[in-house]
Amino acid sequence: MLSEIWIYKKNEKIFLVTLFLLLVVIGCLNWMLGLLTAIVIIGFVIVIEKNDYKQECILLNYLDELSAGVEAGTIYAVKNLPLGISLMDEKRQFVWANGVFRSWLKADIEEDNLFKDVFSGVRISKIWGKTGWFDYSLDEEYYRVFYKFIPPSKENGAAFMAFYLVDRTAMQQQIQACKEAMPVFGLIRVDNVAEATQNMTDVEKSNILSEVDEVILSEFISRDAFIKRYSSTEFVICMSRKALKDCMNDNFNILDKVRDIHTVNRIPVTISIGIVKCEGTFAKQFEMAQTALDLALGRGGDQAIVRVDKDVKAFGGRSSTSVSSTRVRVRVVAQALREIIQESDRVFVMGHGHEDYDAIGAAVGVTHLAKASGKPVNIVLSAYEDTSHKMINALDADKEMGPMLMTEKTALNIITDKSVLFIVDTHVPQVVAAPELLRAAKKRVVIDHHRRNASIISPTLLTYMEPSASSASELVSELIQYYGGDRDLTTLEASCLYAGLVVDTKNFSVQTSVRTFDAASFLRRSGADAKLVRALFAVNVETVRIKSEIMAHLKTVDGYMVFAECPAGTEQAQIIAGQVADYLVTVEGIHASFLFYHVEEGVTSISARSDGTVNVQVVMEALGGGGHLTVSGAQISGDMTIEAATQKIVEEVRKQIKEA
Fold this sequence. Notes:
six-stranded mixed beta sheet, 20% strand, 23 helices, six-stranded parallel beta sheet, alpha/beta, 660 residues
C-alpha cells in the first residue's frame, strides 16, 4: 500500500508541473486570463492538499491501530499459547515466565525463581550453554522441556537460557497403557499333590484337585489372563504387565488361597509360580519362566518368582518345605554319583567359606563315597577355620583323614580336566571356600539343603538340592546308605556327619523330619561317638562371659525383634553369634533375632533366626544373603553400616508382618 501511495504522489507532481507550464503559456498570450486561471488552479491545489492531508491522517491512524493490534496479539499469544515459556539469566534465576509455565510447574517465579526450585532433580550445570531437551514429571504430569542458549548480544551483554515446556501427559499415558498391555508369560505347578493326597480315596483326591483348579483358574481369569492346563498339575499363563503388577501388589495372595484349601490329612496343598517380564522373544521368555519356576521349586515351593530382566523378586515362601517320604530320588542320585566318581581321576570336596560343622561333616561324608570307589580324594579348606577348628584339628590328627586336607593353592596345582569337584552345604558361587578352584573345575557336583538362591553354581554334572532336609550332612548320610560298596563308615567319619546334623538342627529341635532321625540312627549305628560330638560343642568360661555381654547390650524393636552385636576380635564369633541368636528366639514374645559379628576386616556378618513367624531367608536375601525360613545369614561390607543394615532388616520384617 505504501508503494502505491508513493506512485500517486509522483504522478501528482508531474500533473502540477504540466499545469504550471500551461499557465505560463496562457499568461504570455493573455495576462488577465492567465491570472484568473492561476487563481483557480491555486484554489484547486489547496483543496486537493487539504484532502490529501486528511486521508494521510486516517491512513496513519489505521496503521497505528493495526500495529498495536498485532503487538497485542503477539503478546497474548506468547502468554497464552499451550506452551510454557520462560527465560533464565546467568545467575540461574528465572527473570520471566508466561502464565502457562507458572501454572504447569506450580512455580512462583517472584519467590522460587532459582532453577533448582522449579526443576528439582535436574542439574543446570549439565545444560547451561547448550541446546537440547529433557523429560520432567511433576505430580503425575509429564513434560518435555526444550532449552536454548541465548548468547550475549552487542546491545545486551548478558546471556540467557530460554525454556519451552510441551505437555506430554496424554502421550505418556498412552505409552504407559501400551506397556501395561504387553504380555508376560508364566508357569504354575502344584508342588505336593502326592504328599497332600496321600491315603485319600479317589473321590477325595479328585475333589481336592478340582478345588485347586477352581481357585487357580478363577484367580487369573478375574485378571483377564489366559491360562491353560497342560498336565494334571501344571498350567501356563499369559497376562498383561498391569495384571502382573496387581498380583505383585497383592503379594500373590493366590498362594494363601490355595494353601487354605482344607485337606483330610491336614497337609496343605501348595503351588509354585514362575513368571518372566522381559523384552526377549517368546521362546526366550518361556525358557526364563521355566528357570523362574525351577528357582521357586528349588527354594522349597509355595512361592512365586518374578524375573524382571535380570532382577529376581520372590513372593510367599512362608510355609515349611514338605518332606517326601520316598527314597527313590536318593537312590537315583547315589547311583549317578557313583558313575561320576568312577569316571574321574580325583575327587575334590569343599564347602562354603568359614566352614561350619555341617559343611565339614558333609565333606567328610563325600570322601567316604570317593574312597568306596577307590578314588583319591581331598577336602579343600578356606583360609578361615575359626568356626570349625576343633573338627579340623580332629581330622588333621587322624592318620587317614589328615593327609586329605589341603589348601586351594595346592588343589589348583593337581586338578585336571577329569577331576570332579563336590560343593556341599552351599550352591552360591560367591561364598564357596575356594573360588579359584571352582572356576578351574570342569566337572562339578552340588549337594545342598538350602533354599535356592537367584545365584547358583552352573554348569554342573548334577545338582542335588533338598530344602526339606535339615542339613547337608543328612543328605550325604542318605547317599552313603544307597551308594554301595564294602567300606563302612569309620567312627570319625560318622561322628563328623552326626555333628553336622546336631549343629544345623540345634540338637534336633528345629528343621527335623523322620528322615533326619533315620539319618541320625544310621550314623549312631555306624559308630558316631556322642562324647566326641559333645567335646566339639563344649564352650569355655570366656565364651559364656561373651554371650552374657552380648545379651546385656541387645536392642529390642517392636517388641518381637532383637538385635545384638558380637564384640570385635571375639574368637569363634560365628559360633557364638549363632548360639546366641538361637537362644533369643526361644524367649517369650521374640519372633526373630539378628546377631552381627566380625570374622574378617571390612566385612560384617549376620546370623538370623526365627521361630517361624518371620521368613528370615527373604529378609537376608534383601541384604544379599540367604538360607532357610528359620535360619539364615548374610554379609555386609562397603558403605553399609550396622545401623543401615538394621534399618533395612526392620523394614523387611515389618513388611512381612503387615502382609501376614
